[in-house]
């Protein structure tokens, strides 16, 4: 499978996430679209890691080239889990104060 | 066309359709369920790439923990189905056009890049996605980031509790 198919798939998923952030007003859905973008990047990192590994296998058997990208994906998942816990706590607090999760209420920071 | 190719196209179409449904669903709970389907499709891709550890972690952490947290919050808030105020049609259209332009631009760049021409992704083979090599790398070369991430988790937990208690 050519790497370009993977790049185009991940770009499509990422753009869907961008459109979601731009068009929805529900803070939870915006947050979910950010998760979608993170996952698209994860998939692309794994695809690149396997591309690099496949190229390195030509010259040397049992090499572990390309394993760094998969470790990065693991750390991205760790950071995403921490981010979700704090972000959802913030959304819950915002709901308690305004009784809504509409992000347009948050423009009060402007003044 | 081999089985792997058919699986790739099926999983890709499944992922893209589910991701679009996340956007169009009016009900936030339906959006969460569609997003879980996207994560399962991405896990299928990981299995296709023989990254078995990441496939399992993706299902356990994302579909199992994070999405359940989202569902809890949505059900706790008791948001009504039609309560979400919609953006104006013009703003929505602008968002879709902006995202579409970004996608077109990036695909055009990818099509013109010469470094990735004829590069193949190794499917079904390669051992770097298995637990043994990953664990070896994680606990030798990357042991300091691993320990720091545990501190990050602790601080995130403390932060979530403090923000939620107010």
Structure description:
The complex is a heterodimer of chains A (111) and B (166). Chain A has 111 residues and is an all-alpha fold. Chain A contains three helices and no strands. Chain B is an all-alpha fold. Chain B folds into three domains: 83 residues, Four Helix Bundle (Hemerythrin (Met), subunit A), CATH 1.20.120; 27 residues; 40 residues. Chain B has six helices and no strands. In chain B, helix 1 runs antiparallel to helix 2 and helix 2 runs antiparallel to helix 3. The radius of gyration of chain B is 20 Å and the shape is globular. The mean pLDDT of chain B is 87.
Quick summary:
Chain A is mostly helical and 111 residues long. Chain A has helices at residues 3-23, 27-59, 67-98.
CATH topology of the largest domain in chain B: Four Helix Bundle (Hemerythrin (Met), subunit A)
Just give the CATH class of the largest domain in chain B: Mainly Alpha
CATH topology of chain A: Helix Hairpins
Oligomeric composition of the shown chains: heterodimer
Major sheet summary line of chain A = none
Percentage of helical residues of chain A? over 70%
CATH superfamily of the largest domain in chain B: NADH-ubiquinone/plastoquinone oxidoreductase chain 6, subunit NuoJ
Which series of helices and strands of chain A comes N to C?
HHH
CATH architecture label of chain A: Orthogonal Bundle
Largest interface: A-B, 74 and 85 residues
